Amino acid sequence: MTSNNSKNSFVGCEFTLYPMSDNFVDIILSALDEVDTSTVWMETDDVSTCIRGKMVHVYDITQAIFLHAAKTGKHVAMSGTFGVGCPCDTTDDVFLSEEDEPKNISKIKEINQKAGCKFALYPMGEKDYIEKIQEQVNLSKHRGVEVSPTHYATRLDGDVKDIFKTLHESFDQVQQAVSHVTMTFTISANSPSNQ
Amino acid sequence: MTSNNSKNSFVGCEFTLYPMSDNFVDIILSALDEVDTSTVWMETDDVSTCIRGKMVHVYDITQAIFLHAAKTGKHVAMSGTFGVGCPCDTTDDVFLSEEDEPKNISKIKEINQKAGCKFALYPMGEKDYIEKIQEQVNLSKHRGVEVSPTHYATRLDGDVKDIFKTLHESFDQVQQAVSHVTMTFTISANSPSNQ
């Protein structure tokens, strides 16, 4: 890891999977069991899970965990924060796999799952952060997901894979321009409000 | 609302309550039923709930909703984002109650509930944002909650009322110094990991 690249060399995500079911433990453990997490550092406690590694794997794994839980048909949500380049961060607790290909694509290929998602981008330490956010929100309109404004966030509706692609690309684009970027997201599937 | 004060005149919170139970709908509706939300503007969709009003009421209501859900004994979590002073925000969808006293204190007084919480403060548009965060994280050590560092967040453990007091005071202190501030949080109670 060179100092020039270190700000963007790894991405983290702190997230929690929420199955609204008495069987929440089984749903979480079964989803984790189906997902290849060998490409990142990972730690779970009673509040959340943290993964740290290459950006491609962080998005691949969060998407796969959500999809394997949602395919149970239960109302499932995931809330979390993606982060990159925090100047206070260390390079401890990171695994940078040599692998560049996402490992979970083949197992989720057949899962078609609609969801609603709200996300917000926070480019840190920049006076013109609003412009950096707006450039990305405009871009999201071209990715096969329905985009709508809400207070404090942008809403995306569509297939889960299209939603995660939008999150990933928006985050990637902003972090190329700004060293420290945070993105919050909440994604929800199978809500009885939609049935 | 004068233009001088408008940046701090109302606070919003976008949050979701997650009861890990087959009875999640009942738990959410019962909690809402016990909480006086008349002091804020409020809207719920299938992904999250947004409330906007005076800071004191926004913290009072989120705390009360979480406590009334957690007292069922079910594993319950809440994730969300508090925000103030976004330069893109409007004063639409806000209710500024004339009331200054939190309305839900008496009904939660008897609820003693332990929880774990992770939160992160994001002062926007400031080059010295790291210092602004660290000042607050140091302060939290004096509020009767156990404070520990984690990746991307600070962890608080203790009674739910002490945790919300810490969140509220930290947010308030930073927003007095920085016009646009965001705070993410995830709070979790009755997790089987702790039993």
Mind explaining what this structure looks like?
The structure is a homodimer of 195-residue chains. In chain A, strand 2 and strand 3 form a beta hairpin. Chain A is globular and about 45 Å long. The first copy, chain A, has six helices and eight strands. The first copy, chain A, has one domain: Alpha-Beta Plaits. Chain A starts with 5 loop residues before the first helix and ends in a 6-residue tail after the last strand. The N terminus of chain A is likely disordered. Chain A is of the alpha+beta class and 195 residues long. The longest helix of chain A has 18 residues. Chain A has an eight-stranded antiparallel β-sheet with strand order 2-3-1-4-8-5-7-6. The interface between A and B is large, with 51 and 52 residues.
Summarize the structure.
With about 200 residues, chain A is of the alpha+beta class.
Helical amount among residues of chain A, as a percent range?
A: 25-40%
What is the 3D shape of chain A? globular
How many beta-strand elements of chain A? 8
Instruction: Identify the CATH class of chain A.
Output: Alpha Beta
End-to-end Cα distance of chain A, whole Å, is 49 Å
What's the total helix number of chain A? 6
The largest sheet of chain A, given as strand count, sense and whether it forms a barrel, is: 8 strands, antiparallel
Low-confidence spans of chain A: pLDDT under 50, at least 5 residues? Answer: 1-7
User: Looking at the chains present, what oligomeric state does this protein adopt?
Assistant: homodimer
Strand order of the largest sheet of chain A: 2-3-1-4-8-5-7-6
Domain Thiamin/hydroxymethyl pyrimidine-binding YkoF putative (chains A, B): 11-89, 115-194
Pfam family, one (chains A, B): Ykof
InterPro entries (chains A, B): HMP/thiamine-bd (IPR015835), MTH1187/YkoF-like (IPR029756), Thiamin/HMP-bd_put_YkoF (IPR011522)
Binding site for thiamine (chains A, B): 17, 49
